[in-house]
């Protein structure tokens, strides 16, 4: 699918070379070496790493140099840095360039980009490629293989630009879904942000119990709780930003999840065996319907 | 470590040949083929499977036949079946036999066994070997390798019997910890039962959202939420029993977990960046302190 990219974009600028940015670079190199690929990261040590790893044609010494002349600009910075980064690039992004991003929450980022880059060809996006790792060395050309990339155009977005970004992501191996920013934020709150919040708070609660009782708890964990601790071990700063940038949907979903947990708890308290079994069986079926392995 | 078992027990009866019972059989066969191993399961198809798999010397056609003459009786039935099973065996268990169990909750099971088998040499136990699979075919000789087995003796338990059961579990590869039944139940509620309840209720909540909005949610899940669906896919009937048999500790821990989740939610609502980061960082450190891989 490389030719689809080559036809559309000649010079691509990646701003931010963390896990996602560097994986895009690697995947592009693998799918179409004909595109000229420039990149910038705000951390000088990351720029040096990226040069050593040789994942792009040119690591520039300023963000302006990276986007100058690019017909595709991909913002791969933390969601809460989007505003400052877009601001700093507002004059150097070419007027015909398509601007996309990879932010984990879309309502806030889309409105920020729309406000700071009025008239720009913006196609907000989010590759849903969960990983607890971070940094350019964690990047991989296969990160998006078979994963979803959700695009969230609004009424100002040109459908041709959406299609161009969709085929760009398909060329990296991703499946593309289009929905509104609001839908995206609700879906992600439900399947990612609130589960992460629950895992982190559960791990913190057990650590507090351990301290209170002066005896080990965590040491005995097996199976499920190991997954919770692994989820909680993700980059705290990245997740703080995700939580804060998707506040409304998270609060809404927290309340739904809490109601469901309290319902199960009530069934346990009431010893309502039949209903409890039925609820657990329904949750079990969800996984079987997903038809996944491992 | 086979000789330690051989010295202590000559005839061992396993009642219940699910994942745990059949794994004990396999592990014993691997560690000490000298012990005579008898077993019974209440389901005739499981008895047939066990005969085909050839994991014990003798699969009996009654529970009484299995325990008759055994100097160690291991009850591997679901926690809420312990009462009926102990009742049915109360006359055939030899008066010098040590009786142990593998139930996931200990206060209830211990008091049931103590009441139904007064004067018996009871050493309640729980091998913490998390697995979502079940049935004799899922059993493995390595299931307990490096895992904890928690023993919960009370004031009536003979310390020599505790040591005999501890060395039995060590011979199967397990690490042994001794604590009160109440401590055990609180620890397990925190590191297993309530996390499982949260995973199941979260999966159910997302399924409800999907139905309400008439659009896919689960399909986009990656990373963390896949773990939740896998946890929720465990045997519903087994987990219903675990929940009901450890009600008090579960309700107590649910309330602690809820407070912690609400605290994080409040920090998000208040946009208290510094404290939120600090809390997430602390939960992250828990995993790093556990010093585990993957």
Structure, explained:
- 2 copies of one chain form a homodimer.
- With 294 residues, chain A is of the alpha/beta class.
- Chain A folds into 2 domains: 178 residues, Rossmann fold; 107 residues, 6-phosphogluconate dehydrogenase C-terminal fold (Orthogonal Bundle).
- In chain A, 54% of the residues lie in helices and 12% in strands.
- Chain A has a 6-stranded parallel beta sheet with strand order 3-2-1-4-5-6, sandwiched between helices. The first copy, chain A, has a 3-stranded mixed beta sheet with strand order 7-8-9, covered by helices on one side.
- In chain A, strand 5, helix 6 and strand 6 form a beta-alpha-beta unit.
- In chain A, helix 5 packs parallel to helix 6, helix 8 packs across helix 9 and helix 8 crosses helix 11.
- Chain A is elongated.
- The two termini of chain A are 30 Å apart.
- The N terminus of chain A is likely disordered.
- Chains A and B meet through helix 8, helix 9, helix 10, helix 11 and helix 12 of A and helix 8, helix 9, helix 10, helix 11 and helix 12 of B.
């Amino acid at each position: 699918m490389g030719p689809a990219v080559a036809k559309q974009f000649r010079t691509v600028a990646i701003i931010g070379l963390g896990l996602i940015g560097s994986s895009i670079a690697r995947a592009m190199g693998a799918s179409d070496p004909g595109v000229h690929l420039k990149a910038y990261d705000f951390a000088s040590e990351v720029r040096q790493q990226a040069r050593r790893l040789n994942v792009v044609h040119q690591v520039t010494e300023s963000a302006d140099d990276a986007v100058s002349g690019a017909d595709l600009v991909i913002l791969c910075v933390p969601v809460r840095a989007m505003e400052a980064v877009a601001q700093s690039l507002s004059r150097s992004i070419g007027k015909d360039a398509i601007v996309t991003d990879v932010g984990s929450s879309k309502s806030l980022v889309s409105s920020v980009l729309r406000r700071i880059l009025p008239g720009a060809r913006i196609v907000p996006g989010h590759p849903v490629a969960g990983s607890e790792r971070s940094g350019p060395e964690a990047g991989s050309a296969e990160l998006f293989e078979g994963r979803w990339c959700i695009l969230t155009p609004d009424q100002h977005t040109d459908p041709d630009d959406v299609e161009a970004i969709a085929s760009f992501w398909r060329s990296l191996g991703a499946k593309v879904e289009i929905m509104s920013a609001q839908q995206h934020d609700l879906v992600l709150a439900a399947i990612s942000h609130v589960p992460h919040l629950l895992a982190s708070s559960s791990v913190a609660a057990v650590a507090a119990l351990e301290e209170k009782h002066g005896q080990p708890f965590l040491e005995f964990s097996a199976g499920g709780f190991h997954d919770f601790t692994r989820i909680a071990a993700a980059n705290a700063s990245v997740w703080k930003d995700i939580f804060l940038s998707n506040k409304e949907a998270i609060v809404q979903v927290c309340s739904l999840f809490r109601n469901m947990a309290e319902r199960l708890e009530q069934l346990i308290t009431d010893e309502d065996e039949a209903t409890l079994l039925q609820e657990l069986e329904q949750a079990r079926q969800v996984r079987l319907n997903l038809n996944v392995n491992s």
